[in-house]
Amino acid sequence: QARTMPERPLNVPRRSTNGTRVIALIALLLAATFGLASRQPPLAGWPVIGTYGGDAAWAMAAYAGWRLLRPTDALLVTAGLALLTAFTVEIAQLVRVDWLDAIRSTRLGALLLGRGFLWSDLVAYAGGTVLATGLDAATRRLAGLRDD
pTM of the predicted model, to two decimals? Predict the structure, then answer.
C-alpha cells in the first residue's frame, strides 16, 4: 500500500529556496559593502563600527554565503556554520607559513583571511552571526517564507 504525504494546509507558506537565495545574495552584497565602508571615513572613526564593524560584517557575509549554498538548512544550522567558518579563519591566523602570509599580504587575502589573531574578533563574529540570524528570521517572516 502506497503512503501519501499529507497535504500542506493553505495557511502555511511554502519554503522557497529561490527566495532564500535572493535574500542571501542581497545580504551578502550588503554585508560586504558595509564591511568595506566600515574601514573608510567617516565610519572608520566611529568607536565600535570602525573597530569591530568589518569583523561583524565578515561573519554576516559568511552567514549569507552558507545560506546561498544551503538554502534549506534551519537558521540555527546556518548560524553554526557561519560562526564555525569565522572562528576557523580567525584561529588560522595563528598559523604563520610563508605562502599563507603572502596571500594575507594582498588586499583581497587580508579581507578574506585576516592578518593577525585577535580575541575581540571572535566576539565581533559572534555578534555579526547573531545579527545576521535575527535579520534573516525577520526577513523570512516578512516575505512569508517558513523555516523548517
Answer: 0.83
